[in-house]
Amino acid sequence: MRRLLFLATATALLALTVGCGGPRFADEAAYLSARQTALVAKNSEKQEFTRDDVSFYLWNLESRQAIVDRVEVVGGAIHVIESLPFSDEGSARAWLLTEERADRGTQHPVSIVRSNRTTELGATSSSMVGSSPGGPLYAYTLPSNVVVVDIPASDALGGITITESREFANLIQAQGELGNWTDNHLEWIQQRSEALGGATLDWARTLTEFQLYGWKLPDGTYTLDIADPDTPEGVLVFRSEAFGSVDEVSAYADRALLDDSIRWAGGLQFSKSGWMLIGTVLLVGAFIIFNILRAKKGKTLTIRRIAGLDQIDEAIGRATETARPVLMVPGIGVLDGISVQALTVFGSVIRSAARFATPIRLLTANPAVFGVAQEIARDVYLSEGVPEQFDPDSVRFVSDRQFAFASGVAGIIQRERVAAAFFMGEFFAESMIFAENANIVGAIQVAASTQTTQTPFFIAACDYVLLGDEFYAASAYLGRQPVLLGSLIGVDWSKMLFMAFILGAVVIHSYNQIRPVDPNSLTIEERTLYEANDQKYIDWRTDTWFLKLTREKRQ
Predict the structure, then answer these.
(1) What is the value of pTM for the model shown?
(2) 137 DSSP β-pair partners
(3) Closest CA to 127 of 217, 201, 221
(4) Per-residue DSSP letters for 311-366?
């Protein structure tokens, strides 16, 4: 009974806490002070706009990440409704721009611009002759039959502005020079119009990967098609949306482009080659699982020798003999997969150092990396049964400023005359400073960097350098754990399969390019076309696909 009462009370308190939302502050000064401390932030910036009576504060953190607080101000008191994390300041500002524009309306709606241009030009009619990245190309027919076509630009708020106007003798000439509809498009447009009950194509926009079609239905409403106009099957519609007006269609397109949601139109990522993507993922997963099971059963899985990792014990031995410390630097990056991999390798280095009571110096440039590095070092000494040997000062946070960190590391190298130095992680211009100073004191150096521009400097100044995937293979190479070892072998199998596939595709494609088409299999029209364009490749698919190819060539 007591247990049930305790659970009920805890549930009620949890519900009450959640219902109250985020933290509350007496005023803005208290909010800024408390959040500055809690977030370890460099600065904050209150946004000029509000949405639904909610204000926004952008916090730039010392870790180079960003936080956006959605706050509600009531009587001077501030209530944090929600805190949204972002990987960097740029991502946060892009999201804030989306929120700001969501409440702003355009000053140039498409319908008004089109109506005003019709009146301004005294046009007898207007129609759409094509599309552009800025929006639809509207043609206005004047009483003299001269046609004026406006080239638009989007204002990113759902409206358009006119950047250029061009005159043509007639509508056919305008369509011929500016129209971007191929035969495939025109055929599909006719079929789609009939499928929508006699709808007219009243708005369109050309994007890098998509074509947007805005259809005006007989009842005055609109349907927007998001499509890929260039597929083997013709125009492929990914998604359709319903709207009340052409202005709503244009506003949706700009909003979707801004927050990138249009890029994930339904089925897009799998519409063309999804079966291959899914099959590849399953195959790679099968390779990895199969090799993990092999490793767990005791099968011998061979990894080629990596000289730099084989020298760890030699470097530790030299440091022990000379009573000089071992230096480790996991780069200057944030806590991510690269720095974690470097710390994993350093765990093996620390383990060897702990067995011989060799002093270590693990120097970091990021507070989060520093915390993880300190815990890894402490756990290693504890697992080796010598927790008393762990010196908290052996793992240090030097500075998060690039050259202040470089100066600090160089000073420690020179003062303590390190016997071995391991540089692994994300390095930039400071790489040569580290390597040269370690070389001056005669330290054995092992380096690895994910920045290919810095690898040549390490090669020039260090004794051993891990190249490419050797850095990521290091944890499996040193630990020989079945899961890591099997994963490494499985990924290597996948790479070999991909290389074989690429080589086979090159051979097949080259063969199809140089093998001539059998003239007897072509119609007179197709033969004329091939002779005119000097086409030499063979059709190895269906007749329908072949006809589509020739139709595209004809355009």
Answers:
(1) 0.51
(2) 130
(3) 201
(4) THHHHHHHHHHHT-PEEEEEES--SSHHHHHHHHHHHHHHHHHHHTT--EEEEESS
